[in-house]
Design goal:
This protein is α/β, with parallel strands linked by helices. It has 13 helices and 6 strands. The chain has one domain: Orthogonal Bundle (Phenylalanine Hydroxylase), CATH 1.10.800. Strands 4-3-6-5 form a 4-stranded mixed beta sheet. Strands 1-2 form a two-stranded parallel sheet.
Length: 302
């Protein structure tokens, strides 16, 4: 049995450190390395959020949780998850060693692959993590990937990166090309943040339900986003979304509401048209930033 020191705990995983040092981004899940403490962290996170999922989560998410047959007591095996997921929508969870550069992330979605962190947060810091872990990725994101319309939306969104690379490929001036890439990336990242990560939707009785993974994987924020009078909630307006910066280290004060997953799919189509017409070329500055690795990932495709 692995010890806590040799486990797969976020920021404390020698296996991940070795993979990163060797430049290995796409990895396997060494399941035998999970410690008893890792499994307890999963079990604690999973058990305490059940009631809040039932109260606040979108029904499609709850259907997805049922379809994936999570073990409530142990960190899931990605191979097991994929056996249930792939026949439904063609998606699969793909283990990664850490941050995936922007173009590669989009390209994974385009190919119905979801980059998945395999480490899990420390059992002593369950309430907040500034970076994804397997609970966020598998319990927060992947149940939505069982829904065909949502999965198709992710694929269409992933294709936006190829469209962006095609659009900027004809720009000769390097600075102009990078500026264009950064602006388009900000717009796409903000859309992803305010929909896939932190999106709300009207239910059948017009009550608000959660479909964003950042909310679905947070015991505290899933209730706060619906109940708190401090949160601004507006019907989604694309002009606002692509020009609105966000910060990741606190509960979100501003959230947007879509009508349905068909609505979300159509919004990606509008993004595509705006990209072609140049409406994403000069969005408002601010977060998120684009790293050198992000910029390089796009430049290598142009």
């Amino acid at each position: 049995m692995a010890t806590s020191q040799s486990g797969l705990t976020t920021t404390k995983a020698p296996f991940i450190e070795k993979a990163q040092a060797s430049g290995e981004l796409y990895i396997h899940q060494p399941y035998e390395l999970y410690s008893e403490e890792n499994h307890r962290a999963w079990a604690t996170l999973y058990a305490r959020i059940q009631e809040r999922w039932q109260k606040y989560a979108n029904p499609k998410f709850l259907d997805g949780v049922h379809s994936l047959c999570f073990d409530p007591h142990k960190v899931p095996k990605l191979d097991d998850i994929n056996k249930f997921l792939n026949p439904l929508t063609g998606f699969k969870a793909k283990a990664v060693s850490g941050y995936v550069p922007a173009f590669l992330f989009f390209d994974c979605l385009r190919n119905r692959e979801f980059p998945t962190t395999i480490t899990i947060r420390d059992i002593n810091t369950l309430d907040y993590l500034p970076e994804p872990d397997i609970f966020h990725d598998i319990a927060g994101h992947v149940p939505m990937h069982t829904d065909r319309k949502f999965a198709d939306t992710l694929v269409r969104f992933g294709e936006c990166a190829h469209l962006a690379a095609e659009i900027v490929s004809g720009i000769k001036d390097e600075k102009e090309k990078i500026d264009r890439i950064v602006s388009i990336f900000k717009a796409l990242a903000r859309f992803f943040w305010f929909t896939i990560e932190f999106g709300l939707m009207r239910g059948e009785a017009q009550e608000l339900k959660v479909y964003g993974s950042g909310l679905l994987s947070s015991y505290g924020e899933i209730a706060h986003c619906i109940e708190s009078p401090e949160v601004q909630r507006y019907p989604i307006q694309l002009e606002w979304v692509i020009n609105q910066y966000f910060e990741i280290d606190h509960y979100q004060p501003l959230l947007f509401i879509v009508d349905s997953f068909e609505h979300l799919f159509d919004l990606v189509g509008v993004l595509e048209e705006w990209m072609k017409s140049g409406k994403l070329n000069n969005v408002a500055p601010g977060q998120p930033t684009m790293s050198e690795a992000d910029v390089k990932s796009f430049l290598e495709r142009t």
